Amino acid sequence: MGYESPGYRFKWPEGHELHGLEIRSTGLSVDELEEVAAFRELRDAPEEERKKVIAPMVAMFADHLVEWNWTHGGEPVGTDEKSIRRLDSRQLIPVIFTWMREVSSIPAPLPQGLPSGQPSPVESPLMDLPSPNLTS
After folding, report:
1. Which of 18, 20, 54, 67 has its CA 20 to 30 A from that of 9?
2. Residue 25 neighbours by CB distance under 10 Å
């Protein structure tokens, strides 16, 4: 029996325009974490440069999206890249940015010297993420 990561769950808070949206996803590999860091470096780049990362960002999000409850016209939107690319970009891109920020954050290290087999007294953000703070 091995360890399997529980992944991430996101819920938007009441009052937010995306309230009701729930997402379950997997995390990033180290290589993908480096890609996300490169995306962030383009934050102040000219618009044409920033547009070049949209397709890779959407593809990365789709690769990690396990399930969600997004609907369009009363029908569920698939978790595949083709389905995701059809969504309203003004709603989708903030969701992807939130997901990238949350899954690429590095948690505080666990305290040293924990007794073997004992749970950590530090709550890890990787266990079950609370609703992301989308006001920042």
Report:
1. 54
2. 22
